[in-house]
# Entry
Amino acid sequence: MDAFWLSLAMIFLAELGDKTQLVALTLATCYNTGVVLWGIFWATLAVHVFSAGIGWFIGGRLPLEWINFVAGIAFVAFGFWTLRGDRIDDEEESCKTTIHPFWIVFSTFFMAELGDKTMLSTVTLASTKPFLPVWLGSTLGMVLSDGLAIILGKMLHAKLPEKSIKIGASIIFFIFGAYSMYEGGASFGTGIWIAAALLIAVTGYFFLRGAHSLSKR
# Structure
């Protein structure tokens, strides 16, 4: 699949149920939808230029088979992360009116995206794909995912089927991750695969335990 469309699709999925999408939905209840999406676009463009740059730097210095294998593990982890979902803190839910809404959205999104799942997904994609298509595709995928959630949320005036969406997105991450692991590690020994399976099991336990604790809040 072309790097641009792959990045668009994977970041679109990674954003479903993510903390930054919840932030977008909250901000859209305070400010104009167009302003919110414009702020998201520029904040994502700014963050993901660094994400794609980091992935490109790493990808040019490591063996391709190991990059694909580790990227596959990362995508499986992103699947568990997506399945867990996120919540936003009370302070992130409040509307601020002291400065222009664009700068509120931009700064909020820029800070929320640092170290987030979509940023790490972009780093992973850029480690095996060209820089520019990943940067632009990941940015557009983020805006489309948030825009769709905002528009549907306003049209339906109800909570979207979050659980079904998260499960579907997680399954796609698992499949993509397994394929990437096989593509990179087909010639690896049994010991490496066992170590990877243990790492995935620990990661899954960590995120699913987190999902249980989130559901109690």
About this structure: Residues 3-215 form one domain. The radius of gyration is 18 Å. The chain has a mean pLDDT of 81.
